[in-house]
């Protein structure tokens, strides 16, 4: 019923058709794939290639931070390990080692007749 095209006079239409946008629109109407689809696909492919180079550079920088160990360094790390005591590690995690060295967890005494609730 009503077109979405705006009205252009004869002079305006001629000026529009001579402009870059008008000529490009005319070419797209003739062969839309060649003038619109192909450039779009080429720009996507080019963007993918360029972005893959940036991503590769990012991961190469990360890889530089990680260094390979020779066998002697690895063996020295294994031999120089400290002995682990589970009780000390538990107290360190709880933050109780320095403050309460003699602290031991134990069960709360139950009232007479109260169940132990052991499953």
From TrEMBL:
Keywords: Membrane, Mitochondrion, Mitochondrion inner membrane, Transmembrane, Transmembrane helix
Family membership noted in the UniProt record: Belongs to the COX16 family.
Family matches, as Pfam families: COX16 (PF14138)
Function field: Required for the assembly of the mitochondrial respiratory chain complex IV (CIV), also known as cytochrome c oxidase. May participate in merging the COX1 and COX2 assembly lines.
GO (cellular component) term, any one: mitochondrial inner membrane
Membrane in keyword set: yes
Membrane topology listed for this record: Single-pass membrane protein
InterPro entries: Cyt_c_Oxase_assmbl_COX16
A Gene Ontology BP annotation from the UniProt entry: mitochondrial respiratory chain complex IV assembly
Keyword Transmembrane helix tagged: yes
Name under which the protein is recorded: Cytochrome c oxidase assembly protein COX16, mitochondrial
């Amino acid at each position: 019923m009503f077109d979405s095209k705006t009205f252009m006079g004869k002079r305006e239409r001629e000026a529009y058709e001579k402009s870059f946008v008008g000529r490009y629109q005319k070419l797209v109407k003739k062969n839309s794939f060649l003038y619109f689809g192909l450039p779009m696909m080429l720009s996507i492919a080019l963007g993918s290639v360029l972005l893959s180079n940036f991503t590769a550079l990012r991961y190469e920088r990360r890889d530089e931070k990680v260094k390979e160990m020779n066998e002697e360094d690895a063996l020295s790390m294994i031999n120089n390990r400290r002995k682990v005591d589970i009780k000390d590690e538990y107290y360190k995690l709880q933050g109780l080692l320095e403050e309460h060295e003699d602290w031991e967890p134990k069960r709360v005494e139950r009232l007479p007749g109260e169940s132990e609730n052991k499953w």
